[in-house]
Amino acid sequence: MAKTRVEKYRHADFREQARDIMGVDRERRKYGGAVDTAGTIARALEKAYQRGRKEEREGEPPCPTENHGLIDWILIPPRPRRAFWGLCLSLLGMQGDTTEPKGGLRYMWDPQTKRTRWVQIRDWANIDQYDLRDTWGPRTIKPLVDLGLLRQTEEHRLSLTERGVATWRQAVKEADGHMLYP
Fold first, then answer.
1. Tens of pLDDT along 132-155?
2. Out of 8, 51, 59, 105, which residue is the most buried by the measure of CB atoms under 10 Å away?
3. Within its chain, how far is the Cα of 9 from the centroid?
4. Of the listed ranges 34-48, 79-93, 113-127, 157-171, the one predicted with least confidence
């Protein structure tokens, strides 16, 4: 059964909360801080329960309106979102520049990991200038293609689509001057 639009947002919101809880837990453990993960999880579950009861009484909350085919930032899965963030940040900048991106991704051999990976190319005119730190595996990039944020332009090359550029610009606009994080 397909999820409703509200359920998709609810699911994405709960996953973000879980990621935040685990991130704080890891950070505090790493630096020897006090950790109460069980208590934090219990509070999050109680909030979710209360939210469910409220929605049961009052009906489902209003869902964000359709963004003319754009993908809301929270609905992009986390690992692909991080890759999309890195790609857009280097190609379009934090201001969501109006210029069209000159680069994209190229599927090539990474001698460090001994695997074929998607490597970020900043400018197709200088295809030999790339940084192997900006690489992603096929499972990370595939959801971006499936969502229509990237498209294949030539064999082993991907570029941002108009939808991808518009999604980035919308996310930057919604960040309202604050740093947009993956």
1. 777 888 999 999 999 999 998 888
2. 105
3. 14
4. 113-127
Phi, psi of 108 (to 5 degrees): -150, 165
Query: What pLDDT is attached to residue 62?
Result: 62
- Contact yes or no for 131/120 (Cβ under 8 A): yes
Residue of higher predicted confidence among 83 and 8: 83
Q: Which CATH architecture has domain 73-175?
A: Orthogonal Bundle (1.10)
Residues of the chain with CATH 1.10.10: 73-175
Buried b (16+ CB within 10 A) or exposed e, 17-48: eeeeeeeebeeeeeeeeeeeeeebeeeeeeee
Reported as a single tens digit per residue, the pLDDT across 73-110 is: 888 888 899 999 888 888 887 766 656 777 888 888 87
Asked if 89 and 101 count as a contact pair (C-beta separation under 8 A), the reply is no
